[in-house]
What does this fold into?
Amino acid sequence: MLHKFTFAITVSAISLLIAGCSNSKKAISSSELPSLKETFQKDFTIGAALNGLQIEEKEPNAAVLVPQQFNAITPENIMKAEIIHPEWGKYNFDLADKIVAYGQKHKMEINGHTLIWHSQLPAFVRRMKDADSVRRFFTDHINTIAGRYDGKITSWDVVNEALEEDGSLRKSIFLEKLGEDYIVEAFRLAQKAAPNTKLYYNDYNIEQPKKRAGAIAIIKKLQAAGVRIDGVGIQGHWRASNMPLKDIEESIVEFSKLGIEVMFTELDLGVLPNPWDSDAADVNMKAEYSAKMNPYPNGLPDSIQAKLTKAYEDLFSLFLKHKEKISRITFWGVNDGQSWLNGWPIRGRTNYPLLFDREFKPKPAFYRVIETKTKSTEKKAF
Ligand code: XIL
It folds into this structure.
């Protein structure tokens, strides 16, 4: 049985397992490592986005670390339309079925990501000119995929990133061809195809007041139409040097007033300069590489490590303060080396946004996050 104050996990068996794997470095070397999912088990689930190799358990270190640390998973890419639905009427469920089996095996929550999104669309959709074709794709896509995994996964990000920074609807192919009710339609279709699956709206920067107002308008519109929405995901691609803590707190409070779950779904705290000094996380944004934009190729200076650690501490202290309102915190990746922030918005950089380093070793921020909980428990005890 899991015990509330038992954070330590013996990993000697794990070390043996790792030692047996030829391509693994000395990764999880400590004999006792606290577990995020156990530490926060009374508060919220703790998730990670998994890439294809991790889903197939072809990465020995991740195969050990993920079930030890996380009780929720999101596929980083393999349920996106360009991969799962590459051509008209042709679906590729191979890896999606595998992540479902993986999550079931480890009794993890599985969040489907994502049904309707303007990015990572297959070429046949990007080429569409007429509204009828887009509508046919939209309907088939939601019915087929949401239907297939109903009862097998926990939730769907039904619509992802439908908002502009000013809170208006993004000028996507869906808005253009289907009109502004497309979000309600997407949720209505998902509700019908997946009656046993939670349905979420997911976006970046919706902690910011204007964009947050746009998200609230979407949620209220769905509720007024009598269509089910169970939660909202704030992605959480922030910069450690620029944490919008006040906006985050206000968002937790405001979104939860709508009677839905609040989640942080793609957490990573970058430490590199941003070419536009912005927190927008549009995957289509690109900038040129320069050495100035990649200041820490050989390791993170202590001062920056300390800032990252403090940013994670502040964030998790806030999450704990509002734990009744928050259902899940998912990190966008397992370790720094695999983070998409090494390649976006500039290719070839070295970023350090997660709690585990390139060797899968826990960073100072990992221990500080664990401490936010042990400290809050101590405070209550005395
Ligand atoms: C990113 C993946 O991490 C990358 O591997 C991929 O190349 C682009 O997409 N918002 C989202 C995620 O909702 O799906 C994005 O994931 C990051 C931003």
About this structure: Residues 1-27 have pLDDT under 50 and may be disordered. The CA atoms of residues 248 and 270 lie 17 Å apart. The longest strand covers residues 261-270.
